[in-house]
Amino acid sequence: MSNLPRWPLPSASTAGEPDATGTARPAEGWVFEDPRSQSLLETIHQVAPSQASILIQGESGTEKEAIARYIHQHSPRRNGPFVSVNCGALSEVLVNSELFGYENGAFAGAFGSVAGRFEDAHQGTLLLDEIDDLPPSMQNKLLRVLHERSVQRLGASQRTTIDVRVIAATPRRLEQQVAARRFREDLYYALNVVTLDVPPLRQRPGDILPLAEHFIGLYSRRMNHAPIELSREAIALLLAYPWPGNVRELENVIHRTLLLSRGIRIRADELRLPASAQAGLPPPAPSSDDSAPQHPQAVLAANQLLDEALESLCDQYSEGLEALLQNALLLKVWQRNRLNQVQTARQLGLSRSVVRTRLLRLGQLSPSGEAIAPTPDGPPCSPSAGPATGQ
After folding, report:
1. Region Disordered: start and end of each range (predicted)?
2. pTM > 0.85
């Protein structure tokens, strides 16, 4: 499977659009890096060009709709509509008119003729999500639609021919629903020409870090944040956590972390995962961007370390020491605030204009005022960088 194509995840605005070669990229929320995902991708590429109905089974949060969109994008129907219906969100009263449409006067409040989702998806693909929640009466109608390739609106006397590929999705094992007599067996076989079992995130660990990095990049851009990376301990925690909410939970964790964390490196504790997830993990290594200690004894220890560092600097530098310390403090606070000038100015107790002038002098801002990502060796902090008064 090493010869299978791989694509970078797109942003929300480009999900499903063709790339420079004309090949559609995967829908957001799915990568195919883990061997199990690669196996699923191989099956998808085999069945996507067909007209067969497909049943997608997987836990909640595994982004089954993203898989359905990917199938649509790689099918002959890619230029037609993709329509998604959540059957579990519709009441038994509404599901009939939602799927099949209605004519004027079909029921109280029915004004005008309205096409249903099947007609909306004509010459395209219709995803019936949470298909197992479809009421029994609608299961009978759906089976007839699949057999006759036509629908009848509520209040209409004629049937309308449709050309639709149906993809069904469910978070449950549909064969168990059939055995419990909660789902029609003949409808199950009509939908289940091909079954795609989507593995949960915990069973495809090779996808966890690529997904996390994708969501970090996505939300950093949306929030106008500087680049941020995962610490070693955060990576270990992400890989150890079982992710009961799957991809959707991972996305929410990354989004929340970026909203609440500080600095340019995400620590394990900033992920705010359940304490049980950290059992068995190695103790975190000291990090230069850890929050300042708050315990009185820890504060005294930190002050002692600061005093020793200042003593050492006084021994090393006979001049320019104030500029060195100002530059170092400014750059550390700026990095801790993810290159945000307003937050940096607030923490230092300075005006934003002063902070901006100093950063420009240190080469950390472009002439247009955009932040320049720090280099691995760090920005200049020596006295030769010049005094950082900015006034």
Report:
1. 1-25, 366-391
2. no
Contacts of 388 (CB under 8 A, 6+ apart): 323, 326, 327, 330, 358, 361, 362
Count CB-CB contacts under 10 A for residue 45. Answer: 14
Helix 208-222, helix 232-240: angle, nearest 10: 120
User: In the numeric block, which tokens belong to residue 59?
Assistant: 């836990």
* DSSP annotation of 294: -
Domains along the chain? 35-199 (3.40.50.300), 203-278 (1.10.8.60), 320-385 (1.10.10.60)
Cα–Cα distance for residue pair 41/52, rounded to 1 Å: 17
Residue pLDDT, tens place only, 65-89: 999 999 999 999 999 999 999 988 8
Handedness of CA 244, 246, 252, 257 (dihedral sign): positive
Distance from C-alpha of 167 to C-alpha of 71, rounded to nearest angstrom? 9
Two tokens, residue 188: 């199950």
Alpha-carbon gap, residue 6 to 249, rounded angstroms: 24
